[in-house]
UniProtKB/TrEMBL annotation:
Matches recorded under SUPFAM superfamilies: FKBP-like, Triger factor/SurA peptide-binding domain-like
Protein name, UniProt field: Parvulin-like PPIase
Superkingdom to which the source organism belongs: Bacteria
Record-linked PANTHER family: CHAPERONE SURA
GO MF, any single term: peptidyl-prolyl cis-trans isomerase activity
UniProt entry tagged with the keyword Isomerase: yes
Signal peptide annotation: 1-31
Keywords: Chaperone, Isomerase, Periplasm, Rotamase, Signal
Organism from which the protein derives: Novosphingobium silvae
Entries under InterPro entries matching the protein: OMP_Chaperone_SurA (IPR050280), PPIase_dom_sf (IPR046357), PPIase_PpiC (IPR000297), SurA_N (IPR015391), Trigger_fact/SurA_dom_sf (IPR027304)
Domain PpiC: 206-303
Amino acid sequence: MIGTKQSGRKTFMRRALLCVGSLAALSSAMGAGVASAQSARQGDIVIPDDVKIFGNDNPNMRRATAVVNGDVITGTDVDQRLALIVAANQGKIDDDEMKRLRLQILRNLIDETLQIQEAKAADIEVAQAEVDQSYARVATQNFNQNITAMDAYLKRVGSSPESLKRQIRGELSWQRLLQRNVQPFINVSDDEVNENLARLKAAKGTEEYRLGEIYLSATPEARQQVYENATKIVQQLRQGGSFVAYARQYSEATTASVGGDLGWVRLAQLPAELQVVAREMETGQLVGPVEVPGGFDILYLIDKRQVLTADPRDAILALKQISLPFPKGISEAEAGKRAEAFSKAMKAAKGCGDVDGVANGLGAQVVTNDQVKARDLPGQIQNSILQLSPGETLPPFGSLEDGVRILMLCGRDDPQTDTGPSFEQLQAQLEDDRVNKRAQTYLRDLRRDAVIEYN
């Protein structure tokens, strides 16, 4: 989430809670056909089976501008937000996908406008200095750039600093509004927290999954269309699209604001349809669309671990990388011989204290890093390097262009056993989850009462 920090630990049960009432009323009305005025209950939506559309009002043909309670959203606003998504996907978005993205971004901007308006009506002000501070933090953390470089990047891809700052203002405003109007009325009892802690300890050793999700709701009538849209999103993601970017713009789950990150969940917390899928997934795998009650899910497995069990991949390693360049134009056969000789020479080194002298004699360079987390290394070498003892090396790797490299393990600090969240941390997590559920209802009420004009 840009500019703010929110918990990504959400459960899929929220969707069932949100749509049970409306779907029940809709199915009842459709099953009965066109109900009479005498039998219709307040809240029923009655739609005949043989729907006839009068006129040619296609909402997909509207220009992407709107006036929300008097505040204007321009086509430029939409274009600048869209530019960030296009840049994140390296421009690999087809025309149909671009149309869907544009409509989704317009809906997001409408919600953002409603949130800012509601905060202002509650006399909640976000100072420009705070927005600028968050913007600078985003530049550093997300882009590894200073503000000047960030401004230039946004303009180069067709966006603007003002567009991103408006998004930051919207998120800060909404967060503070929830802190005032929702959070004080959320209560999590000590018994609830203790019950959850007991369940967590009972689950020790079972697997937890850190999942990313994109959830698209679908009524029975729109099921096929939503499925096709979800399939196209999956295709875009498989072609290199940004999961985080698509989750922020498309997902209808509360996790959209954090790029779809569900945080760590156990299989029992997922709907039955997703339990089967997640159990078979490998880290880095994308699956979907998977049909669940109320819609479709696209899942991405970020990582997995065992509950309350130390993960060896969290070990902190002290490594030395020894690099030997190849002459330009070297053949693959000759490079193989040099790599073999290099590996043999490095194995003769008596630990990390001796490796620098050996490397100097070979004309190799040595780089030292004693703060490398094992899980941050490429997956194909994680297990191998965790099997080494200090002073041992991995097999050589590299390319004709980059030369040959060898990693030597100098030391290892194993992770402490995970004791799980404290009472206070778990209580805060449960409160965050309830605040986000109330926030969804709050936003739906704002949408329902809004006066929106489309141009």
